[in-house]
Design a protein that fits this description.
Radius of gyration: 15 Å
CATH class: Alpha Beta
Number of domains: 1
Number of strands: 8
Structural class: mainly beta
CATH architecture: 3-Layer(aba) Sandwich
Shape: globular
Helix content: 10-25%
């Protein structure tokens, strides 16, 4: 999909995501041309600007920049806080809501340091 925001046309790959039991949603970030063995996996680096992950169980969307995903096979986006209260290196689903991503990048420009 192509969407215009942030002053340019952005290439977007849409994927569904599955909820895990530990309060996180696992989002797969690769494509396979052989779905039986998953031997031919390829990343989307240099092909897209964003992923949109749709979680059907909760009917929510996340807009994740490709820089966050990199060449990872999957990422986990937390819905609930961790049991031990850890927040370092944790990606929260709500941090990638359309409102937050588009508001910062489109309406207000880059965040100020």
């Amino acid at each position: 999909m192509i969407a215009e925001f942030n002053g340019k046309l952005n290439r977007i790959q849409i994927k569904t995501s599955n909820e895990e039991n530990n309060g996180a949603i696992k989002c797969y970030c690769r494509s396979s041309t052989n779905h039986t063995t998953n031997k031919n996996l390829s990343t989307y680096e240099n092909d897209i600007d964003y992923f949109v992950f749709y979680n059907q169980q909760r009917d929510i969307l996340a807009l994740v920049p490709i820089e966050v995903v990199g060449n990872n096979k999957s990422i986990s986006l937390r819905i609930e806080p961790t049991n031990n209260g850890q927040t370092k290196n944790i990606k929260f689903f709500n941090d990638y809501s359309f409102d937050k991503i588009l508001c910062v990048e489109t309406l207000h420009g880059e965040p100020k340091s």
